[in-house]
Structure formats: structure tokens, C-alpha cells
Amino acid sequence: MSDRPEPTAPAAHTPSAVEVRGLVKRRGAFHLGPLDLRVPVGFVTGFVGANGAGKTTTIKAMLGMVRPDAGTVRVPDRDRIGVVLDAPFLVPDWRVTEAARALRPLYSRWDERQFAALTDRFGLRPHQKVKDLSRGESTKLMVALALAHDPDLLILDEPTAGLDPAARLDLIDLLREFMLDERHSVVFSTHITTDLETFADQVVVIHDGVIHFTGARDDLVESYAMARGGPDDLTPASERLTHGLRRTPTGFEALIATTDTAAFGPGVVMETPTIDDVVARLGRGPTRHSTALADPQHRSAAA
């Protein structure tokens, strides 16, 4: 495992690898933004939210794969970006070596030995066809292609989905090795919150196309509390301060900002939430009887 030191919070003068300002994208009933997002150089930014929250749309806007309806996106030159998308974009009949041969001319710093070393590390055979790879193997191939040209910025959309636990740990360790160079940056989209706990420096939480939190990973859980109380412990005023409120016949539970804890009575128990608690509830309206039905006033979401 690499020995990457724990970074301090990015300073205001830290240069940006990615800057998104006022990004808006409408697609059917789904509305993304207005969205502001900054990825500082030298940091791993975890971009987290439920499926359909807007993560993939934002990433595609960063890469120029969708045209925003409003706003600006600034990223490095494409030659300096490594990309791992949720779905492979390779020709199904290509072999592993043919995929490398097709992409090599696009990158001035392509390193064939690095690609061979990565595919060997991942257990990929040179003559395997893309269409014969499992989802996990496809992800490994995309990672090898992304790292073989020594990018400054890695953008990964759900890279650990489909990987078994051993392969997930190997990928995270490989990304740690990548981040030993302080000029490198990573945008890491995921709905698997354990990836954030082991790897992300800062976290961006998105729900229904709106960013609800941006900050250091540890600040995410310190900024919120899980409140649990009886049926009579919740007033109309305090209910308005909750996220993901769930009522049951015996009481309620909800996520609240730590700055709002004084609004709740002494009968309400406050506990430290997990990252899962925050991501699952932040920005969500109330539900009843633990059924987790969607708030009908929320916009429909699509990736």
C-alpha cells in the first residue's frame, strides 16, 4: 500500500484542476444545477449521491460529452485527462492490445510499458476481446488505458462498481500511488460510501441535481447529527430543519445540521451519523412509517 500523506484542506490559493460555475443542464424532467464545483490540484474529490442524482451528467459536462444549457466548465487539455466511465466506450470486438493501439495516437505521453504493466497487474490477457470481459475486467481495462498516458487529472465515474472486494482495494491503492505526485488530482464519482472513507480528501454530495455539501471528508459527518425521538418530540418548527425525516408509530428519526440541535428538546437523542446516513438523507423530504417513499414535491432525477 502507498504511503500518501493525509493532505491538509485546500487553501484558497490552491490551483484548480476543475472549475465549474453556474452549470445548468435540463433533460426531460431532470434539472441539474445551477451547480458550482471546484476540484483543487493535489486532492481527491469524492462526488457522491444516489443513482440518478446528477453525477454522470456533471462528469459528462466536464468532458464535453453534453452541452450545458448555462454555465462554464474549465478543465485541463484532453491530452492531460484520464477517464474511466461507468460504461466502456470501446469497440466490442477490439482485443485489449487493439484498444491500446487505437487510443495511443491521442496522447503525447502514452507509455506502452506502463499499459502492459497495468494490464498484467489486473490479470488481463492481451488477446481478450472487450465483449468477453466481465464488468469488473472492463473497468480494469479502462483504468489501465486512463493511466497509461500519465494524466494530470483522473475523472472516474463509479469505477468500483462491479469489482470484487480484493479488486476494489487494489484499485484504491493504485489511485493512492497516482496521488503520490502532488500535481495529480482525482474526481471520483460513486454511490459506495466506503470508497469515500478510505480515499477521498473532500466530498461533494449531490441530490436531485443540487449540491448540498462540499467540504473535507471528516467535516461531512461532523456537520450533521442523527436525531431520534418520540412522536411528541417533533414540532412543526423543528420538522422544517430535518432531512430525510422518517416517522414511525413509536417516534421519528432524521438528519439535522449540528447548528440546529438546540431547536430540539431534551428527549431527542443526537448521534454521530455515518457517511451513508448523510448521503441517503441530505436534501430529502420526510417519509412515513419507514417506507422511504419519494417526496412528491421533489424533481424526478436521471443520471
TrEMBL record:
Keyword terms of this UniProt record: ATP-binding, Nucleotide-binding, Transport
Q: Could you cite one Gene Ontology molecular function of this protein?
A: ATP hydrolysis activity
Protease listed as a keyword:
no
List the Pfam families: ABC_tran (PF00005)
Limits of the ABC transporter domain: 12-233
Q: Which domain of life is it from?
A: Bacteria
Q: Which Gene3D superfamilies match?
A: P-loop containing nucleotide triphosphate hydrolases (3.40.50.300)
Protein name per UniProt: ABC-2 type transport system ATP-binding protein
**Species this protein is from:** Xylanimonas ulmi
